[in-house]
Design goal:
With 383 residues, the protein is of the alpha/beta class. Helix content is 37%, strand content 24%. It has one domain: Rossmann fold, CATH 3.40.50. The longest helix is centred in the first third of the chain and has 18 residues. The structure holds S-adenosylmethionine (SAM).
């Protein structure tokens, strides 16, 4: 496959390969997504929404943010009443979900709203710029670039589709041995993958999680995701972390029928597996290993409360009531919105594809509304 995409990025990749002979797939993905100014996420281009490459939930309807807000307010009342409270979103993108969360708290819980500090942590300068415009009317909102800048948090930290956008290592199993995938170039432009002995931390990750990859499998190992989760976990003093994303526990992620892994590219609402084309122009993403986030979270004092999916979470928090009131209204716009809301809970669709991992710290045996009823503990839900 020919290396193609933004000239600036192709030059960077070529010069690294000229110097070092190869670059790891992880480094390639880091350049493609986050190279300053030209990476997919760091450049000035619409990525999320109708004119972009994919939709995220808050582009469809504010209900997800509204029900998250409802969940956060229950947490405030039960575990933080009278205390200061922080609501932090990491990887907040264009800021739509944060807008729905803040807007809903302001409207429905004005007395609590004044006690809350909102913080948005977003790596992309382009997305930070968009957010600052969109959310300019909220005074109690602070913008950060990196998790390391966060103060100690008492409250809730959440993310939506953050961990799927983190650069991953690629590994391949051949004759029962695990190799890391590097890339090099033939004749200056043809990408050739090379397999090399992986560093010790990839092997210890697999061992720590008890993962035995089937022979012949190519898959991704997201060491940066567990590093980020641990960094976030260390910032949390008391409260909850909600991680919303697509992905599975290890037991499902490494089943033989997923022997090509889950890395995928999105470009103008179509997906492909040509990672080396359109570099910097298309998104590259992978499914999240939720067993890893849960297990590595324990190393920084996070306990896992539950692992659920969007459908169960939203229904527990009252999505059905919202649907009934829309049907009662009976007008065309309400009917249209009801249809939109239904897509958020469809089995085999967004309802099951999107999972929610809830971790906590500094609270005894918490119980929260969004986890009242959980999905059955099949391999897709057993961490
Ligand atoms: C797939 S987008 C999702 C955006 C948004 N949460 C939504 O649902 O529309 C992922 C976002 O995470 C940001 N991001 C990636 N790594 C990050 C990090 N370490 N800290 C903060 N933001 C990060 C990216 O710049 C991007 O805006």
């Amino acid at each position: 496959m020919k290396l193609s995409g933004k000239d600036e990025l192709i030059r960077v990749i070529k010069s690294k390969i000229e110097k070092e002979g190869v670059i790891s797939f992880r480094e390639f993905m880091e350049i493609a997504l986050y190279y300053p100014e030209y990476g997919y996420y760091t450049s000035d281009k619409d990525k999320i929404g109708g004119f972009g490459d994919y939709f995220t939930v808050s582009e469809l309807d504010p209900i997800f943010g509204q029900l998250l807000a409802k969940q956060f307010m229950e947490i405030y009342r039960e575990y933080f009443s009278g205390e200061d409270f922080q609501v932090v979103e990491i990887g907040s993108g264009k800021g739509y979900l944060l807008q729905d969360v803040i807007g809903s708290i302001k409207e429905n819980w004005p007395d609590i709203f004044d006690r809350i500090t909102f913080i948005s942590v977003e790596r992309s300068p382009y997305h930070r710029k968009l957010q600052q415009k969109l959310l300019r009317n909220f005074n109690n909102l602070f913008y950060l670039e990196d998790v390391s800048e966060l103060p100690k948090v008492r409250g809730v930290i959440y993310s939506n589709e953050l961990f799927d956008a983190i650069p991953t290592y690629m590994v391949r199993v051949r004759d029962e041995k695990v190799y890391e995938v590097y890339i090099t170039l033939k004749d200056g432009e043809e990408v050739v993958e090379e397999e090399r002995v992986p560093p010790a931390d990839i092997l210890s990750y697999l061992k720590h999680l008890g993962i035995r990859l089937p022979d012949g499998m190519t898959t991704e190992i997201n060491l940066d995701a567990v590093k980020l989760l641990k960094e976030i976990g260390l910032k949390l003093e008391k409260g909850f972390i909600f991680t919303v994303d697509y992905g599975y526990p290890s037991a499902e992620l490494y089943k033989p029928y997923r022997n090509r892994g889950t890395l995928i590219c999105y470009h103008r609402h179509k997906y492909n597996e040509n990672y080396y084309e359109n570099v910097g122009i298309q998104d590259i993403t992978s499914h999240v290993n939720f067993s890893a986030l849960s297990l590595y979270g324990e190393e920084v004092g996070l306990k896992t409360l539950a692992f659920t999916d969007q459908a169960h979470f939203l229904i527990n928090l009252g999505l059905v009531n919202e649907l009934s009131s829309l049907y009662e209204k009976g007008d065309y716009r309400s009917y249209e919105r009801a249809n939109r809301l239904k897509t958020l809970v469809l089995p085999k669709g967004m309802g099951e594809k999107f999972k929610i991992l809830v971790q906590f710290k500094g609270i005894e045996n918490p119980r929260i509304e969004g986890l009242k009823v959980l999905p059955p503990k099949t391999d897709r839900y057993r961490l």
